[in-house]
Amino acid sequence: MDELATRAAALVARRPGDARLRRVGTSRAGTPLWLLSVGHGSRQALVVAGPHANEPVGGATVLRLAERVLADPRWSEGSDATWNLLLCLDPDGSRRNEGWLSGPYTLGHYFRHFFRPGFLEQPEWLPDGAAAAALPETRALLALQDELRPFFQCSLHGVDVGGGFVELTRDLPGLDRRVAHTAARLGIPRELGAYDTLYWPGLGPAVYRIPPPRRGDRAAAITEAAVESTWFHPHRHGTVTAVVEAPMWGVAAVEDGSPSANPDAVLRTVSHTLRHDARTLERILARLRPHLPGSSAPGEPPAVTAPDAGAALPTALPPGARARPHANAPAPAVPPGVRPRPGDPAEAARLLAPVDDYLLICPGLADAWDPDVDAGTAAHPLPPLSTAHLATLRIAGRRLALRTAGLLHQVVTGAGRDPADVLPELDLLLDQWCADYRDGCGARWIPVGRQVEYQSRVVLSAFELAGQYASEGPRSGEPGWGTGTVVPMHRE
Are strands 81-86 and 152-162 parallel, antiparallel or unpaired? Predict the structure, then answer.
């Protein structure tokens, strides 16, 4: 995190007439939110890095973009554009992932140091609408959007295992061809059946359209509703938003759009495996939780932060469930440079919040994917599935288990003791599940330089096409658009 700000400041010192750096907000832990602006055009472009704590590639991408804009006038003067590059939206969470950033770049090292906050503490969501945004990081981004009124916004994300793809709030015709060209040149697999977008309209291979939020909408995907977010907040200004996903470990099968010989057999395996893994992790958590300071008493109903996957969004909590604290009262963030104390209850709470969220959605996911479960009970029956779709579902199920195991591993190691004797089992599970990614799915590390080059080229392509769209004038609002309160769900 510190290196990002240092490198941005050095760039400004080198080109003070063309680049500026300003503080646009402060995180919960007091970390500055820095905006690097390049160029002096009248049209504003906004690029947001680091919205998810475990996806660091965006920070390097914004610096690469700044260098390219400075080196090539067509991206600034030639386009009458100013590039506004937010170095990191969630610096506190990103700092917690620094344990794996220096390598080795192995799956086991990554998942043992993985952190991403609970769903309600992810700053791109607006669970109660923009006016009630609780996180200071969210409020800073909303204020920036309203100040700049960008014609183009880009949110930089990373896929831990899988392939690259793009999500758009409006179609940018031709982007799919440019993504295909860039991916082929750099050896990046495209995700042709992205798990995030299972029920979303396709705009071309590996390019998908984000549904607009609607009051009371059902889940647009198994774990994701088309909820109100900072992606759609500047919609009224005519902004086109692109979410650019770049993979860290690539899997060739996610690019295989051929029909599957026996999709039901694959779905049975994936769903049964997810149920088994979730039950195993629930047993480990049940053994561990009584030993954690400030934890729930044994037998207390689990926390609920999102509706049961595959069901209509509820207006009330399920019977017997208790709500986790709302994002208006998140667990205190760890200030920069401060190491959590062993046995710190707040530290355990930060790690267990996403654990509870992941374990909550696993049963509904398994049922939604299982061909032997009555499809009539699901809010959204599965669409026709290609080999690529099935590969991403397998990866997604395993991802939930690995993230949960990695967080539980950190709960134990952070406490400095293992009174429930769960660490050996967690280590074994992490090793086995990472081996399945590596050997069963063929996951291969993509060098950071290639991740950055892929993401920056896709951003420039989307920027160029969005500029053409903006010159034609924004279209009217979307049918069914609403700005009322919505229920957040998990975005993977």
Answer: unpaired
Angle (CA) 293 297 299, round 5°: 145
Q: Report helix, strand or coil for 72.
A: coil
- Backbone φ and ψ for 140, nearest 5 degrees, come out as -65, -40
**Rounded (10°) CA dihedral 391, 394, 399, 401:** -170
Q: What angle do CA 104, 194, 476 make, to 5 degrees?
A: 125
Tokens, residue 210: 């984000």
Question: Which parts of 220-321 are beta strand (E)?
Answer: 240-250, 303-304
Helix (H, G, I), strand (E, B) or coil at 444: strand
Q: ∠ at Cα 196 (107, 251), nearest 5°? A: 40
Beta pairing, strands 152-162 & 43-48: parallel
- 43 forms beta bridges with 81
Question: Which token pair is 422?
Answer: 């769960």
The residues, any chain, with a CB within 8 Å of residue 316's CB and separated by 6 or more, are none
User: In 10 A of CB 58, how many CB atoms?
Assistant: 33
Instruction: Give dist(CA 385, CA 420) in Å, integer.
Output: 42
341-364 pLDDT, tens digit each: 656 788 899 999 999 999 999 999
Pick the closest to residue 194 from 160, 174, 226, 165 (CA basis).
165
3-state SS, residue 55: coil
**Distance (Å, whole) CA 83 – CA 20:** 10
In angstroms, the CA 359 to CA 221 distance is 17
Note the pTM of the prediction, 2 decimals. 0.87
How far apart CA 465 and CA 472 sit, in angstroms, is: 11
Contacts 24+ apart (CB under 8 A), 335-342: 335/29, 335/30, 335/31, 336/1, 336/2, 336/29, 336/30, 336/31, 336/95, 340/414, 342/414, 342/415, 342/416, 342/417
Q: Does residue 104 have a cis bond before it (omega within 30 degrees)?
A: yes
Q: How many residues does the chain have?
A: 492
Alpha-carbon gap, residue 241 to 462, rounded angstroms: 9
CA dist 150 → 225, 272, 333, 475 (Å) = 25, 46, 30, 15
Strand ranges (E), 170-234: 202-204, 207-209
Cα–Cα dist 386/259, whole Å: 5
Judge whether 40 and 82 are in contact, CB under 8 Å: yes
User: pLDDT tens-digit profile of 24-75?
Assistant: 999 999 999 999 999 999 999 999 999 999 999 999 999 999 999 999 999 9
